[in-house]
Specification:
Length: 175
């Protein structure tokens, strides 16, 4: 299985090819992550991981299209990013984007009715929201993750009180 760890930092995922823009972290491939295409062949990876990276990139749509290009048909994409209500989303001045659990719906099969943004498609395998500890202990995290309608209600009406922490997405490339 060939894995690409985008923005690998100092700890490249075991067995993965690490690509990062920072020479100090000694990635396998040194590359400006905002420069497309990345220096890899099309459909050359079974899995792409972007862990706390996408919020730093200049163009989310182009990044998703590049991840799609790099994945083989049926390949998996893992994205983790702060939820926009978490303090860490705004305290890092290198964060350009503040995302919700619905931010990637444009890449789904029904493309949220906005198919003109991108032609690349991903099937949502899972979306998991991690909440701040108090809300997890009170059972809100379980409700948010088990019931998609409750997740929508939470993000529309409750998330500024019952704040999110991290979003975890797993997608499958549709080609």
């Amino acid at each position: 299985m060939r894995i690409l760890d985008v923005g690998c930092g100092v700890k490249t995922y075991p067995g993965a090819v690490g690509v990062d823009r920072n020479p100090d972290v000694r990635p396998d491939v040194l590359w400006d992550l905002d420069s497309f295409p990345y220096p890899f062949e099309e459909s050359s990876f079974d899995s792409v991981r972007a862990i706390h990276v996408i919020e730093h990139l200049g163009d989310v749509i182009k990044a998703m299209e590049e991840f799609h290009r790099l994945l083989r048909p049926g390949g998996r994409l893992r994205i983790e990013t702060p939820h926009y209500t978490d303090f860490s989303s705004f305290c890092d001045p290198t964060h350009r984007w503040h995302l919700t659990s619905f931010s990637f719906r444009y890449f789904g099969e029904d493309h949220a009715g906005f198919g003109y943004y991108s032609r690349c498609r991903f099937r949502e395998v899972s979306v998991r929201v991690k909440l701040l500890a108090l809300w997890k202990w009170l059972g809100f995290e379980l409700l948010v993750n088990r019931f998609p309608r409750f997740r929508r209600f939470w993000e529309h009406y409750l998330c500024f009180v019952v704040r999110g922490k991290v979003l975890e997405f797993d997608f499958e490339a549709i080609k």
